[in-house]
Amino acid sequence: MFLITDWPLGVLALDYESGKLLWEKDTQFTTEPGCVSYAKNRILLPTTNDLSLVDNRSEKIWTHKFSARNDKIFRITPTVFSNSNILCVLEDGVLACLSPQGNILWQTSAVGPPSGPPIASTNNIIYLVTDGRLIAVNGDGKIFKDFAPDIRTDISPIIDSEGNLIVALSDGGICSLAPPHLQ
After folding, report:
1. 10 and 51 part of one domain
2. What are phi and psi of 83, to 5 degrees?
3. 3-state DSSP: the chain helix, strand, coil percent, rounded to 5?
4. Which of 46, 50, 80, 160 gives 20 to 30 Å between its CA and that of 69?
5. Residue 104 lies in a domain
6. How much is the pLDDT for 158?
7. Alpha carbons 136 and 180: distance in angstroms, whole number
């Protein structure tokens, strides 16, 4: 199944091979780009001020409202982290970790607006690009490494199959950091 979020239509589900429309459903909330498969028959769906977990028919399982702080979810794909926890970045640079039930486990204020989604490594290190700076956050939400001024980037890094952190630098170069990336 392939999903498309399209306001005001909501969620469209297409068969991956044939492209045939399987179903469409008005979600009754404004969707943003970046839905992500979460678990079997579960989809994370960012909305303007909320993050929802829906089933494969677009029925809400839970919604976490960020609107109490007047925050908006940054319009990027949420990241599934260790123990099925969910990472999302708010427009003001706050990195939030939610439990599989949609409860806030922790929040960390970064140094500026994010430039892309958080990237999680297998050793529970989260990398976030904010205001051109690459920042490392541990699994408890504590910022413990700011790679600036040595590494300046405007997009999220990737982690290759050997665990190396690959960073596209702002000056056009590429940097590869071997695990544990923090030396």
Report:
1. yes
2. 55, 30
3. 5, 45, 50
4. 80
5. no
6. 87
7. 11
Residue 173, class by beta-carbon neighbours within 10 Å (0-12 exposed, 13-18 middle, 19+ buried)?
exposed
Residue 100 inside a domain? The answer is: no
Nearest to 85 by CA among 96, 75, 74, 76: 96
Of 154, 156, 175, 150, nearest to 164 by C-alpha is 175
Tell how many helices (H) and how many strands (E) occur in the chain: 0, 18
Mean pLDDT in consecutive groups of 10 residues from the start of the chain, 183 residues: 58 76 64 60 74 78 72 65 82 84 87 78 84 86 83 83 86 83 57
Q: Quick one: tokens of 158?
A: 């990737």
User: In terms of domains, do 71 and 118 share one?
Assistant: no
What is the domain range of residue 179?
110-183
